[in-house]
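hi! just following up on the protien thing from before. the input was this:
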Amino acid sequence: MSVTLSVSEREEIMKLLNDEQKSYLNERLKRGRKTVFANTLAMDKGLYLPDGASDEEIELLLDEWILEDYIDHEVVSADHPCECGRPLRYEYIVRHLQTNERRSFGVNHFEEHTGLSPDIVKAIMKGFQKIDYELDEVLSKLKNNWTRDDTIQDLPHELEMPHDILQHLHLKLPLLERQKERLNKILSDYQDNTFYNDNFKHEENQTQPTQVNEFDHIHNPASDYTQAKLSLFDDQPVQNPSDEEIILDAAAYILSNEYKDAILSYLDEGVESARLICELLIKNQNAPRERYISNKPRIYYSVCLFLDNLIISEQLELHSHDTIDRIYK
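and the predicted 3d structure came back as:
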């Protein structure tokens, strides 16, 4: 059940936080609103922004309005008026990407000042409300003297965790319930893999003498490539595709030279996300729009194969990867 705090309750709890915690939560609130706004407009065009997309990447995918800033002026002030002249406390600043026109207004005037449809504005407001609920969840837990539970305290040092969870733990901020669920899943997978690897090594030691290869210390990028492929579809909620399905997808979505040239062009422009490259191909090169149930484009696998071949030829590096996206440098 969502926790809703009043403006005054929220402000009182925020006063108890240190500067670093306040700065993080305020920036997260601002960033969350910008992402919700951009995602809603992208989805209206049948596109999906990857998590963590930068402002520059958002502008590549969208053609119309972007939410450029969200400002809490702390008090209602005539110094920060809406376009209609009404004094504002919470100011939303949008910019049109084609004309560079900027407009400032309150939350109730999105439809009037942007020309967005009522359905899109309703979806934006719903997304903003979800961001507010998550802030209230963190603050209400702090108010109720939240402490780290045993699961969080006993995390293995070598466990790789998402950046947002690490930030909460570093700043001593409560985890959201959805973050706890994700962390428990990551921990469960880690424990399962550790159990499997330990047993595999035990069986291997029982059946084979230990051998040392003089070339074992040399890094093999092709090995990284093969291993990374295994995680491309781990986000499927029902089941992962079989090897046969993956082969069929790779055959069905062979990249044309036009797509390959476009990918190289996007890399030159600084695009690093494989997911965003797929969305740009769909938008600008009319690439296939079919998606998995997670909204990941079905062309994603073929795009990653092409990018990973650039790794093998040492033209590119895989900076990070998880079940959601792969980031290349």
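The chain has 13 helices and five strands.
The two ends are 41 Å apart (CA to CA).
cheers
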